[in-house]
Amino acid sequence: MKLGEIATLVGAQTKGDPGYPVLGVGDIERLSSEQALEDNRLYFIESPAVLKRHPVTTGGGAVLTNAALAEQFEHALVAGQKELRLVFIKLLTLFDKTPAFAPQVHREPTWTPPHAWPPTPGSWRERPSWRARASARGASSTPAWSSSLSPRSATARSYTPTLWSATIAASASAASSTGAR
Q1: Exposed, middle or buried, 165 (CB in 10 Å: 0-12/13-18/19+)?
Q2: Spans of the chain below 50 pLDDT
Q3: pTM for the full predicted model
């Protein structure tokens, strides 16, 4: 795009050659203080403070700025101080490269519905549970240890302290017979 075309689209005035080619918008804050503006890029300079941070900016490129700062640049888009940020937003939308997708509905689903999973016979859903396999062998569906060590049974309450006391007594008697401390 040419600088003059951009000026008419965003509602600004040009200073310098209106046929100056502009390829995109540049970010002045990404440049170091010693770097000049890139050619064929358009930068936004709103205040003299930006010029203090980037003193070499008056060389190449084009800028969008207000009338007071436009005199320092060879190629400029000039807008009023109140409209400057609105013009910058219009400028950004001109060079926006975000892809636009048309809304659509796919004819084929991209996921498998839960009722169709797993699709092959003999899969894990058709395999009998451990209880069914145990009863097929003739075993009890409840493991033998679960009833004796259940916290709700009286056996578990009386069995556990006896086991611990027997273990402690056995280790104490073994230690005293060997003379270990």
Answers
A1: exposed
A2: 147, 150, 153-160, 162
A3: 0.53
